[in-house]
Amino acid sequence: MTETRVRPPGGAPGSSTLVNDDLAPTTKETATWRTWDIFCLWMTSAHSIASYGFAVGMLALGMTGWQTMLALFVGVLILWLGSNLVGVAGQKVGVPFPVFARAAFGVFGANVPALLRAVVAVFWYGIQTYLASTALMILLLRVWPGLASWTESSFLGLSALGWIAFLVLWTVQLAIINYGMEVVRKASDFAGPVVWIGMIALAIWILGKADWSIDFNARAGEPLSGGATVAAFVGVAFLMVSFMAGPLVNYADFARFSPSKKAVLRGNAWGIPFNETAFVVLSIVISLATLKVYGEVLHDPVALVAEIDNDAIVMIAAVLFATATVGINVVLNFVSPAYDISNAAPKYISFRTGGIITAVLSIVVLPWKLWENQDFIIYFLGGVGALMGPVFGILVVDYYLVRRQRTAVGDLYSDHPEGSYWYTRGFNPKALIALGISGTIAVIVALAPDSQTITALSWPVGAALGAAIMYGLNVKRPVSTP
Q: Which residue of 225, 293, 399, 430 lies most exposed, with the fewest beta carbons within 10 A?
């Protein structure tokens, strides 16, 4: 079936209050993201300081190295299947995530999931910029040791050198987004592959220190019983999905620019099961080597780089890690809120303006203080992030089962009561009820005290409940499909 793309003569589709040039459907001229670009997009998504920290952090749950790798691989496969569902739909309809969500939530109701996604992205954008700045600081201190005096005083919790490094990367990222999605594509194509150089070099260096042998049966946490091992295995698999839940939900922001379904599926296949698995394996290998050499797992590759006594290698590695983190930040945490904020008032806020708002907010939240406050990350970002599972379930069921892959694209931009996605004053009560119920339960699961096994299930519980409730509310009185 083909989508009904409506564009009135001489202008953007639908009502002027719900569209701007950035939110309008993709055209043949702008469909430039081919298999390689999608592959690099997922490489960029996986290759970051935070991704490495997440992968090796799973060792602390008590499983062995090989058990952890296998559990993360299962999570990667689930992520791959989800990306195919969202990516194929996004490419077919040709609109960004907040506009795609209008079909399920209503033309105004879509702001609810969009702004929830934006909140998570803004905070993580600031945190990732800060993490990248730590790599830049190591580089600056190796080149100019005298700058150490600039780290002695602080303003709002960050040293003078820290502010310089943070604002340099903040400016670079803002410059990238200012030139639009085509420059984002080129930045992703560069940042995605380049970090492999740093990771492989780091692996060779630490393996050399470990006498080229590591124990895949080693573990960082206390040994687990049989039942506890199974629970931890399931938990790690779904934590892998939860870690990428936000990017998975707004994947339409990128898949819309692909010229074909085949390009999306091929890019997903190379970028997720192949590349992300390889990155996970390399991360675990490095962490097991650090466990042997230092007696503990180093969760931050930048801290490991700082241990290298060769200045040239340190400088190259610092540049690579900073570049990779900038890449993932632009792709995962800048594009999404730029679209999401623009969607709230398309007539007044463009994609670039949404990006500027995102960048300013990322400073206001003082991300270096947030990174130190793990309770905030767990309770606030973890709680809001848990809502991404229900949003995923609702969108997928609405598109594939309720509307059966039919979309009146023109009506996604219509604020007239006759529009297909007007529902009740622009809001779809069924989708909001499904999100309210499943989201509440998902957040409760995510914030369960002293139980990593239970909290790890927030994404599958939320996604399954959101999907089931959305389908149940529509099965007897389905929405009309155009």
A: 225
